[in-house]
């Protein structure tokens, strides 16, 4: 009996629901992508780890790229969507403070996955495009109205949104990722302290 037949037998005997099998695939994909990267992980390996036939993966996700996006999307977006709902009455500055803290917590909890996302986007144009369309584009649609509200209230300068957010997220990523490698670059004791420091520097700069 070959590996695919074994996976088929396991899948049938387990009598799992479609929803459960999809979740098994996502968890297996998350583990293997984080360990071996996008190119280093095959759908056959992911299927074996999930206990399903390889064909089952393609019934849920047309391509490996779609599986990668499905693995990343809830990690990156769900917290931001919830944040947008829970803080709808905040001022723009308060929202961006919460946004910053949320992203730092995300990086701390999912460092290997965030590294994977940016590493794969550098080398695979199809992954880069999928990430932008599936994840980054949605994040932009959530944060842009807050930025525009801040400009309208006079809280923020009327700078171009995308370059401004690129600079803001650059500060977040450098702190979140480099801070785990070069400990001396992140002397703050808590994420809250780091949040206040980064936000103050971003909003007010170094000028007195």
Describe the structure.
The protein is an all-alpha fold and 208 residues long. The protein has 2 domains: 3-61, Orthogonal Bundle (Arc Repressor Mutant, subunit A); 65-204, Tetracycline Repressor, domain 2 (Orthogonal Bundle), CATH 1.10.357. It is 81% helix and 0% strand. α6 runs parallel beside α9 and α7 (111-123) crosses α8. It is elongated, with a radius of gyration of 20 Å. The termini are far apart.
Offer a quick outline of the entry.
It is built from ten helices and no strands. It has helices at residues 3-14, 18-40, 43-50, 54-60, 64-86, 92-109, 111-123, 125-153, 161-181, 191-204. The longest helix has 29 residues, at 125-153.
Task: Give descriptors for this structure.
2 domains; 208 residues; 0% strand; mainly alpha; 81% helix; Arc Repressor Mutant, subunit A; 10 helices
Radius of gyration: 20 Å
SS element count, helices: 10
Helicity range:
over 70%
* Count of β-strands: 0
**Biggest beta-sheet profile:** none
Which residue ranges are poorly predicted, with pLDDT under 50 across at least 5 consecutive positions? none
Report how far apart the termini are: 73 Å
CATH structural architecture of the largest domain: Orthogonal Bundle
* Structural domain count: 2
Order of helices and strands: HHHHHHHHHH
């Amino acid at each position: 009996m070959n590996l695919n037949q074994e996976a088929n037998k396991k899948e049938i005997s387990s009598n799992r629901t479609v929803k459960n099998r999809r979740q098994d695939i996502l968890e297996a994909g998350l583990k293997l992508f984080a360990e071996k990267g996008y190119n280093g992980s095959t759908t056959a390996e992911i299927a074996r780890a999930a206990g399903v036939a390889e064909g089952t993966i393609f019934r849920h996700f047309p391509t490996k790229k779609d599986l990668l996006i499905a693995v990343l999307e809830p990690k990156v977006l769900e917290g931001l969507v919830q944040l947008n709902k829970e803080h709808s009455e905040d001022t723009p500055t308060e929202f961006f403070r919460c946004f910053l803290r949320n992203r730092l917590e995300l990086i701390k909890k999912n460092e290997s996955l965030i590294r994977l996302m940016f590493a794969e986007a550098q080398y695979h144009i199809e992954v880069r495009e999928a990430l932008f369309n599936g994840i980054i584009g949605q994040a932009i649609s959530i944060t842009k109205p807050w930025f525009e509200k801040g400009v309208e209230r006079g809280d923020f300068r009327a700078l171009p949104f995308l370059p401004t957010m690129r600079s803001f997220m650059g500060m977040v990523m450098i702190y979140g990722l480099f801070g785990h490698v070069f400990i001396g670059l992140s002397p703050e004791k808590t994420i809250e302290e780091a949040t206040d420091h980064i936000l103050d520097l971003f909003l007010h700069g170094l000028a007195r």
